[in-house]
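Q: My labmate handed me this sequence with no annotations at all. I'd like to see what the chain might look like in three dimensions before we decide whether it's worth expressing. Could you predict it?
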Amino acid sequence: MQINLIFAAGSLMLASMGVLLTELSGCLCIAAEGFMVLGAFFCYVFTLWTGSAFAGVFFSAVLCALIGLALIVFIQKCKADPFVAALALNLGSLGITSTLSQTLFGTSGVLHEISFNSGQRFMFVIAAVFFLILTAIFLASPYGKRLKAVGRSVPAAIQIGIHTDRYIVASWVLCAFFAAVAGASVVFRAGVYAPLGIAGRGWLAIAAVYLGFKNIFGLCASTFFLALVEQIAYNAQKISSLNVTAILGLPSFLALVLYAISQRKKHKLS
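A: Here is what I predict for the chain of 270 residues:
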């Protein structure tokens, strides 16, 4: 259980870091769920084609980063609503992967034929810690401070010479990249690709950001908390009639309350 807990927390932490960067930029990306779905599917495909788990994760993450880039550029050029556009990706990701799965493998169900060893799973945990350290260093650097300045006030950031669009674009690309790696980890964990294998973890990643008070260190605590809640929920289901969805929904409900409070404060400041 301890290994599974660390692995689940590392996966959730990766997705949450990407969401955190977009939130700090002032343009929240709620598409973590969709990018995790795409990342899981393309990780399976590329791993099967190349025979390398590393290549599978890398190529799927890069592909999702390019999709994230296209999405945010579309939003900026067309003045689209970021929330609606990201929600569309979340809703469309299952249809896209189902269609591709039917085309490539003749089924839209569970895909097998791949096995991952414990060493590869351990390397994923190491990678999650590595990205966490890099993100913490970035946020403490002048570039991280500029990103936060963009999130506080775009007009003020423009006045001091910050290219606000570039920071927002970069945050969305990183969000897509991290979420794709997190989605790939779900395939590592299960050893198969399941169409509904992400099971709302992208939304939990958003919840973790607000439970962690939009702080990288608070994020670490909140992801472990949510991963622990997930473990308890599934174990409780085995020994009682408790509803897993209801248990997992409590942290997300709390995060929604914190999000509403943060948005109210933001409007008051503006």
